[in-house]
Amino acid sequence: xxxxxxxxTGLGSVSAIGFSVPEHLDALIAGRHGITRLEYLDSRFxxxxxxxEVKRSDEEFYALLGIRDGQTTNRTSLLGxxxxxEALDMAGGDIRAFPxxxxxxxxxxxxxxxxxxxxxxxxxxxxxxxIDKLDCGDSTRDIANFLGHRGYLSTLSTACSSAANxxxxxxxxxxxxxxxxxxxxxxxxxxxxxxxxxxxLMLLEKExxxxxxxxxxxxxxxxxxxxxxxxxxxxADPSRRPLLxxxxxxxxxxxxxxxxxxxPDGSGAFSAMRKxxxxxxxxxxxxxxxxCHGTGTPNNDESESKGMERLFGDxxxxxxxxxxxxxHTLAAAGGIEAVFSVLSLQNGxxxxxxxxxxxxxxxxxxxxxxxxxxxxxxxxxxxxxGFGGNNxxxxxxxxxx
Length: 401
Prior knowledge:
CATH topology of the largest domain: Peroxisomal Thiolase, Chain A, domain 1
Radius of gyration: 20 Å
CATH superfamily of the largest domain: Thiolase/Chalcone synthase
Largest sheet: 10 strands, mixed
Structural class: alpha/beta
Helix content: 25-40%
Low-confidence stretches: none
Strand content: 15-25%
CATH architecture of the largest domain: 3-Layer(aba) Sandwich
Protein backbone atom coordinates (compact mmCIF):
# COMPACT_ATOMS: atom_id res chain seq x y z
CA UNK A 1 0.00 0.00 0.00
CA UNK A 2 1.26 3.47 -0.88
CA UNK A 3 2.16 5.66 2.11
CA UNK A 4 2.08 8.94 0.20
CA UNK A 5 -1.25 10.21 1.52
CA UNK A 6 -1.15 13.19 3.85
CA UNK A 7 -3.78 13.98 6.48
CA UNK A 8 -4.57 17.02 8.59
CA THR A 9 -4.83 16.18 12.29
CA GLY A 10 -4.57 19.59 13.95
CA LEU A 11 -5.75 23.16 13.41
CA GLY A 12 -4.82 26.38 15.17
CA SER A 13 -5.74 29.99 14.48
CA VAL A 14 -5.81 33.47 15.95
CA SER A 15 -7.04 36.58 14.15
CA ALA A 16 -9.30 39.58 14.52
CA ILE A 17 -12.33 37.25 14.77
CA GLY A 18 -11.06 34.77 17.34
CA PHE A 19 -8.37 33.40 19.61
CA SER A 20 -9.07 29.74 18.79
CA VAL A 21 -10.52 27.54 16.07
CA PRO A 22 -13.96 27.25 17.77
CA GLU A 23 -14.15 31.05 18.05
CA HIS A 24 -13.34 31.39 14.36
CA LEU A 25 -16.01 28.88 13.45
CA ASP A 26 -18.60 30.79 15.49
CA ALA A 27 -17.66 34.08 13.81
CA LEU A 28 -17.79 32.60 10.30
CA ILE A 29 -21.22 31.13 10.95
CA ALA A 30 -22.51 34.37 12.47
CA GLY A 31 -21.01 36.53 9.69
CA ARG A 32 -19.15 38.53 12.34
CA HIS A 33 -16.10 40.38 11.03
CA GLY A 34 -13.22 41.88 13.00
CA ILE A 35 -12.47 44.99 10.94
CA THR A 36 -12.16 47.91 13.38
CA ARG A 37 -9.97 50.87 14.33
CA LEU A 38 -6.56 50.24 15.86
CA GLU A 39 -6.28 50.01 19.64
CA TYR A 40 -2.82 48.56 20.28
CA LEU A 41 -0.61 49.82 17.44
CA ASP A 42 0.17 53.54 17.36
CA SER A 43 -0.06 54.23 13.63
CA ARG A 44 -0.66 57.64 12.08
CA PHE A 45 -3.54 56.00 10.20
CA UNK A 46 -5.29 54.60 13.29
CA UNK A 47 -8.16 57.11 13.06
CA UNK A 48 -8.36 57.01 9.28
CA UNK A 49 -8.28 53.36 8.21
CA UNK A 50 -9.82 50.09 9.48
CA UNK A 51 -7.73 47.02 10.28
CA UNK A 52 -8.12 43.40 11.33
CA GLU A 53 -6.32 43.83 14.64
CA VAL A 54 -6.18 41.05 17.22
CA LYS A 55 -7.77 42.59 20.32
CA ARG A 56 -5.26 41.39 22.84
CA SER A 57 -2.21 43.27 24.09
CA ASP A 58 1.29 41.81 24.10
CA GLU A 59 1.14 41.78 27.89
CA GLU A 60 -2.03 39.70 27.80
CA PHE A 61 -0.32 37.23 25.46
CA TYR A 62 2.68 37.02 27.82
CA ALA A 63 0.36 36.06 30.69
CA LEU A 64 -1.70 33.58 28.67
CA LEU A 65 1.36 31.88 27.22
CA GLY A 66 3.30 31.88 30.46
CA ILE A 67 6.14 34.02 29.07
CA ARG A 68 8.18 35.76 31.75
CA ASP A 69 10.75 37.62 29.66
CA GLY A 70 8.09 39.17 27.45
CA GLN A 71 10.11 42.12 26.21
CA THR A 72 12.31 39.82 24.14
CA THR A 73 9.36 38.18 22.38
CA ASN A 74 7.88 39.95 19.36
CA ARG A 75 4.16 40.05 18.54
CA THR A 76 4.54 37.87 15.45
CA SER A 77 5.98 35.17 17.70
CA LEU A 78 3.17 35.56 20.23
CA LEU A 79 0.54 35.06 17.53
CA GLY A 80 2.43 32.08 16.12
CA UNK A 81 2.88 30.48 19.54
CA UNK A 82 -0.85 30.74 20.24
CA UNK A 83 -1.99 29.15 16.97
CA UNK A 84 0.73 26.50 16.67
CA UNK A 85 0.14 25.27 20.22
CA GLU A 86 -3.58 24.90 19.53
CA ALA A 87 -2.83 22.92 16.37
CA LEU A 88 -0.33 20.67 18.12
CA ASP A 89 -2.68 20.09 21.07
CA MET A 90 -5.44 19.05 18.68
CA ALA A 91 -3.05 16.63 16.96
CA GLY A 92 -1.92 14.98 20.16
CA GLY A 93 0.28 17.45 21.98
CA ASP A 94 3.58 15.55 22.10
CA ILE A 95 6.04 17.38 19.85
CA ARG A 96 8.56 14.50 20.11
CA ALA A 97 6.22 11.59 19.48
CA PHE A 98 7.20 11.42 15.80
CA PRO A 99 9.90 12.93 13.58
CA UNK A 100 8.44 16.40 13.13
CA UNK A 101 9.18 19.54 11.12
CA UNK A 102 8.13 23.08 11.98
CA UNK A 103 7.72 25.17 8.82
CA UNK A 104 6.68 28.69 9.70
CA UNK A 105 6.31 31.74 7.50
CA UNK A 106 6.20 35.48 8.01
CA UNK A 107 6.86 38.78 6.27
CA UNK A 108 7.05 41.02 9.31
CA UNK A 109 9.13 38.80 11.60
CA UNK A 110 10.35 40.77 14.60
CA UNK A 111 9.87 44.16 12.99
CA UNK A 112 7.20 45.17 15.50
CA UNK A 113 9.78 44.90 18.28
CA UNK A 114 12.55 46.82 16.54
CA UNK A 115 10.16 49.60 15.47
CA UNK A 116 9.68 50.51 19.10
CA UNK A 117 13.35 51.43 19.43
CA UNK A 118 14.11 52.91 16.03
CA UNK A 119 14.08 56.55 17.12
CA UNK A 120 16.14 55.79 20.22
CA UNK A 121 18.86 53.88 18.43
CA UNK A 122 21.43 56.69 18.17
CA UNK A 123 20.81 58.30 21.53
CA UNK A 124 20.29 55.15 23.62
CA UNK A 125 22.99 52.58 22.74
CA UNK A 126 21.57 50.08 25.21
CA UNK A 127 18.57 49.55 22.92
CA UNK A 128 20.73 48.26 20.05
CA UNK A 129 20.49 44.71 21.35
CA UNK A 130 16.89 44.60 20.04
CA ILE A 131 18.05 44.60 16.44
CA ASP A 132 18.61 40.83 16.68
CA LYS A 133 14.81 40.43 16.78
CA LEU A 134 14.25 41.77 13.27
CA ASP A 135 14.73 38.76 11.01
CA CYS A 136 11.93 36.47 9.92
CA GLY A 137 13.61 33.39 11.34
CA ASP A 138 13.55 34.84 14.84
CA SER A 139 9.81 34.21 15.13
CA THR A 140 10.23 30.61 13.99
CA ARG A 141 12.90 30.03 16.62
CA ASP A 142 10.63 31.56 19.27
CA ILE A 143 7.77 29.24 18.27
CA ALA A 144 10.05 26.19 18.21
CA ASN A 145 11.44 26.97 21.67
CA PHE A 146 7.95 27.53 23.02
CA LEU A 147 6.74 24.17 21.68
CA GLY A 148 9.89 22.37 22.80
CA HIS A 149 10.72 21.49 19.20
CA ARG A 150 14.26 20.30 18.45
CA GLY A 151 13.73 18.83 15.01
CA TYR A 152 13.65 20.10 11.44
CA LEU A 153 13.04 23.85 11.28
CA SER A 154 12.60 26.27 8.41
CA THR A 155 11.23 29.75 7.67
CA LEU A 156 9.58 30.88 4.43
CA SER A 157 8.83 34.39 3.25
CA THR A 158 7.13 34.65 -0.14
CA ALA A 159 4.77 37.53 0.64
CA CYS A 160 1.08 36.60 0.75
CA SER A 161 1.60 33.01 -0.44
CA SER A 162 4.02 32.25 2.41
CA ALA A 163 1.88 30.03 4.65
CA ALA A 164 0.51 28.06 1.70
CA ASN A 165 4.09 27.45 0.60
CA UNK A 166 4.93 26.33 4.14
CA UNK A 167 2.21 23.68 3.80
CA UNK A 168 3.65 22.61 0.44
CA UNK A 169 7.16 22.41 1.90
CA UNK A 170 5.92 20.35 4.85
CA UNK A 171 4.02 17.99 2.58
CA UNK A 172 7.11 17.46 0.42
CA UNK A 173 9.23 16.67 3.50
CA UNK A 174 6.72 14.00 4.49
CA UNK A 175 6.57 12.54 1.00
CA UNK A 176 10.36 12.42 0.88
CA UNK A 177 10.40 10.41 4.11
CA UNK A 178 12.38 13.07 6.00
CA UNK A 179 9.67 13.51 8.67
CA UNK A 180 6.34 11.90 9.50
CA UNK A 181 4.66 15.06 10.73
CA UNK A 182 4.88 18.77 9.90
CA UNK A 183 3.44 21.79 11.68
CA UNK A 184 2.94 24.29 8.86
CA UNK A 185 1.57 27.81 8.61
CA UNK A 186 2.43 31.41 9.25
CA UNK A 187 2.17 34.41 11.53
CA UNK A 188 2.28 38.15 10.96
CA UNK A 189 1.65 41.11 13.22
CA UNK A 190 0.58 44.56 12.14
CA UNK A 191 3.50 46.97 11.94
CA UNK A 192 4.00 50.61 11.04
CA UNK A 193 6.33 49.64 8.20
CA UNK A 194 3.72 47.35 6.62
CA UNK A 195 0.91 49.87 6.96
CA UNK A 196 2.99 52.73 5.55
CA UNK A 197 4.21 50.55 2.70
CA UNK A 198 0.76 49.42 1.60
CA UNK A 199 -0.51 52.98 1.96
CA UNK A 200 2.24 54.22 -0.36
CA LEU A 201 1.08 51.65 -2.93
CA MET A 202 -2.47 53.02 -2.58
CA LEU A 203 -3.81 49.55 -1.77
CA LEU A 204 -5.65 50.26 1.51
CA GLU A 205 -9.44 50.57 1.62
CA LYS A 206 -10.93 53.31 3.81
CA GLU A 207 -13.92 51.15 4.78
CA UNK A 208 -14.34 47.42 5.45
CA UNK A 209 -13.11 45.77 2.26
CA UNK A 210 -15.50 44.27 -0.27
CA UNK A 211 -13.72 41.60 -2.34
CA UNK A 212 -14.96 40.91 -5.88
CA UNK A 213 -17.06 44.08 -5.83
CA UNK A 214 -17.15 46.37 -8.86
CA UNK A 215 -16.30 49.35 -6.66
CA UNK A 216 -13.57 47.72 -4.59
CA UNK A 217 -10.71 50.05 -3.74
CA UNK A 218 -8.28 47.97 -1.75
CA UNK A 219 -7.64 45.72 1.22
CA UNK A 220 -7.77 45.96 5.00
CA UNK A 221 -4.52 44.85 6.59
CA UNK A 222 -4.88 42.35 9.41
CA UNK A 223 -2.75 40.28 11.74
CA UNK A 224 -2.92 36.74 13.00
CA UNK A 225 -1.58 33.22 12.69
CA UNK A 226 -2.79 29.94 11.25
CA UNK A 227 -1.20 26.48 11.43
CA UNK A 228 -2.20 22.99 10.40
CA UNK A 229 -0.58 19.69 11.37
CA UNK A 230 0.17 17.33 8.50
CA UNK A 231 0.78 13.64 9.13
CA UNK A 232 1.88 10.82 6.89
CA UNK A 233 -0.38 7.90 6.25
CA UNK A 234 2.00 5.80 8.34
CA UNK A 235 1.22 7.59 11.61
CA ALA A 236 -2.21 9.15 10.93
CA ASP A 237 -4.27 6.80 13.06
CA PRO A 238 -8.00 7.70 13.32
CA SER A 239 -8.27 5.61 16.50
CA ARG A 240 -5.78 7.95 18.16
CA ARG A 241 -7.30 11.25 16.97
CA PRO A 242 -9.69 12.31 14.19
CA LEU A 243 -8.46 12.78 10.65
CA LEU A 244 -9.82 16.23 9.83
CA UNK A 245 -9.14 16.28 6.08
CA UNK A 246 -6.67 15.10 3.48
CA UNK A 247 -4.25 17.28 1.50
CA UNK A 248 -4.55 15.83 -1.98
CA UNK A 249 -3.00 18.46 -4.23
CA UNK A 250 -0.90 21.59 -4.26
CA UNK A 251 1.17 23.75 -6.58
CA UNK A 252 3.28 26.89 -6.59
CA UNK A 253 3.88 28.92 -9.74
CA UNK A 254 5.43 32.29 -10.51
CA UNK A 255 4.17 34.43 -13.34
CA UNK A 256 6.89 37.09 -12.69
CA UNK A 257 4.65 39.73 -14.24
CA UNK A 258 5.26 42.63 -11.83
CA UNK A 259 6.83 43.33 -8.43
CA UNK A 260 3.48 43.88 -6.71
CA UNK A 261 0.76 43.01 -9.24
CA UNK A 262 -0.60 39.72 -10.55
CA UNK A 263 -0.75 39.00 -14.27
CA PRO A 264 -3.89 40.81 -15.49
CA ASP A 265 -4.93 37.90 -17.70
CA GLY A 266 -5.10 35.55 -14.71
CA SER A 267 -2.45 33.18 -16.06
CA GLY A 268 -0.69 32.83 -12.70
CA ALA A 269 -3.87 32.01 -10.81
CA PHE A 270 -4.98 29.60 -13.53
CA SER A 271 -1.65 27.80 -13.58
CA ALA A 272 -1.54 27.31 -9.79
CA MET A 273 -5.11 25.96 -9.66
CA ARG A 274 -4.71 23.79 -12.77
CA LYS A 275 -1.50 22.16 -11.53
CA UNK A 276 -3.04 21.55 -8.11
CA UNK A 277 -6.01 19.70 -9.61
CA UNK A 278 -3.72 17.77 -11.93
CA UNK A 279 -1.62 16.57 -8.99
CA UNK A 280 -4.75 15.35 -7.21
CA UNK A 281 -6.28 13.79 -10.33
CA UNK A 282 -9.39 15.90 -9.74
CA UNK A 283 -11.50 17.43 -12.49
CA UNK A 284 -12.61 21.07 -12.18
CA UNK A 285 -16.26 19.98 -11.95
CA UNK A 286 -15.45 18.03 -8.77
CA UNK A 287 -14.37 21.11 -6.77
CA UNK A 288 -17.05 21.96 -4.22
CA UNK A 289 -15.87 25.37 -3.02
CA UNK A 290 -13.01 27.82 -3.54
CA UNK A 291 -11.67 29.88 -0.66
CA CYS A 292 -10.23 32.64 -2.83
CA HIS A 293 -7.27 34.88 -2.19
CA GLY A 294 -9.71 37.77 -2.80
CA THR A 295 -7.90 40.75 -1.31
CA GLY A 296 -10.32 43.40 -2.52
CA THR A 297 -7.71 45.18 -4.65
CA PRO A 298 -8.65 46.00 -8.27
CA ASN A 299 -5.83 43.93 -9.74
CA ASN A 300 -6.08 40.81 -7.58
CA ASP A 301 -9.82 40.20 -7.84
CA GLU A 302 -9.87 40.76 -11.59
CA SER A 303 -6.91 38.45 -12.14
CA GLU A 304 -8.21 35.69 -9.87
CA SER A 305 -11.65 35.87 -11.50
CA LYS A 306 -10.09 35.49 -14.95
CA GLY A 307 -8.10 32.51 -13.73
CA MET A 308 -11.25 30.85 -12.40
CA GLU A 309 -13.14 31.59 -15.61
CA ARG A 310 -10.36 30.06 -17.68
CA LEU A 311 -10.23 26.90 -15.54
CA PHE A 312 -13.92 26.34 -14.80
CA GLY A 313 -15.59 27.98 -17.79
CA ASP A 314 -19.25 28.70 -17.13
CA UNK A 315 -19.31 26.19 -14.24
CA UNK A 316 -17.36 28.12 -11.60
CA UNK A 317 -18.03 26.42 -8.23
CA UNK A 318 -19.22 28.36 -5.18
CA UNK A 319 -16.49 30.73 -4.05
CA UNK A 320 -15.82 33.52 -1.58
CA UNK A 321 -13.08 35.50 0.09
CA UNK A 322 -12.90 35.43 3.88
CA UNK A 323 -10.54 38.43 4.10
CA UNK A 324 -13.50 40.69 4.83
CA UNK A 325 -13.69 38.80 8.15
CA UNK A 326 -10.02 38.93 9.18
CA UNK A 327 -8.35 41.50 6.98
CA HIS A 328 -5.39 40.46 4.86
CA THR A 329 -2.97 38.83 7.29
CA LEU A 330 -0.16 38.65 4.71
CA ALA A 331 2.10 35.63 5.34
CA ALA A 332 -0.45 34.16 7.76
CA ALA A 333 -3.32 34.31 5.26
CA GLY A 334 -2.73 30.92 3.67
CA GLY A 335 -2.53 29.26 7.10
CA ILE A 336 -5.67 30.87 8.45
CA GLU A 337 -7.55 30.14 5.24
CA ALA A 338 -6.33 26.54 5.23
CA VAL A 339 -7.99 26.26 8.65
CA PHE A 340 -11.16 27.81 7.20
CA SER A 341 -11.09 25.36 4.29
CA VAL A 342 -10.86 22.34 6.59
CA LEU A 343 -13.66 23.77 8.76
CA SER A 344 -15.75 24.14 5.61
CA LEU A 345 -15.28 20.45 4.78
CA GLN A 346 -15.93 19.30 8.33
CA ASN A 347 -19.10 21.31 8.78
CA GLY A 348 -20.53 21.21 5.26
CA UNK A 349 -20.55 25.01 5.10
CA UNK A 350 -19.56 27.63 2.54
CA UNK A 351 -18.46 30.93 4.07
CA UNK A 352 -20.00 34.20 2.88
CA UNK A 353 -18.19 36.91 0.94
CA UNK A 354 -19.05 39.88 3.14
CA UNK A 355 -19.87 43.42 1.98
CA UNK A 356 -20.56 42.60 -1.69
CA UNK A 357 -22.79 45.27 -3.25
CA UNK A 358 -22.19 45.16 -7.00
CA UNK A 359 -20.47 42.12 -8.52
CA UNK A 360 -17.77 42.70 -11.12
CA UNK A 361 -19.83 43.11 -14.31
CA UNK A 362 -17.29 41.45 -16.61
CA UNK A 363 -18.07 37.98 -15.25
CA UNK A 364 -21.22 35.89 -15.30
CA UNK A 365 -20.49 34.36 -11.88
CA UNK A 366 -20.48 35.97 -8.44
CA UNK A 367 -19.30 34.98 -4.96
CA UNK A 368 -21.54 33.56 -2.27
CA UNK A 369 -22.89 36.35 -0.07
CA UNK A 370 -24.63 34.34 2.63
CA UNK A 371 -23.72 31.29 4.69
CA UNK A 372 -24.57 28.02 2.99
CA UNK A 373 -25.21 25.05 5.28
CA UNK A 374 -25.68 21.31 4.83
CA UNK A 375 -23.51 21.19 1.73
CA UNK A 376 -22.03 17.91 0.51
CA UNK A 377 -18.45 19.11 0.10
CA UNK A 378 -15.81 16.79 -1.32
CA UNK A 379 -12.97 19.10 -2.38
CA UNK A 380 -12.13 22.63 -1.20
CA UNK A 381 -9.53 24.69 -3.06
CA UNK A 382 -7.63 27.40 -1.16
CA UNK A 383 -5.77 30.12 -3.09
CA UNK A 384 -2.91 32.31 -1.85
CA UNK A 385 -1.29 34.71 -4.29
CA GLY A 386 1.67 36.93 -3.39
CA PHE A 387 3.67 39.88 -4.64
CA GLY A 388 5.86 39.10 -7.60
CA GLY A 389 3.28 36.68 -8.96
CA ASN A 390 4.12 33.92 -6.47
CA ASN A 391 0.92 31.88 -6.65
CA UNK A 392 0.00 28.85 -4.56
CA UNK A 393 -3.08 26.66 -4.33
CA UNK A 394 -3.94 23.86 -1.91
CA UNK A 395 -6.65 21.24 -2.41
CA UNK A 396 -8.24 19.63 0.64
CA UNK A 397 -10.52 16.60 0.52
CA UNK A 398 -13.02 15.31 3.02
CA UNK A 399 -12.03 12.08 4.74
CA UNK A 400 -14.42 9.37 3.66
CA UNK A 401 -15.52 7.04 6.46
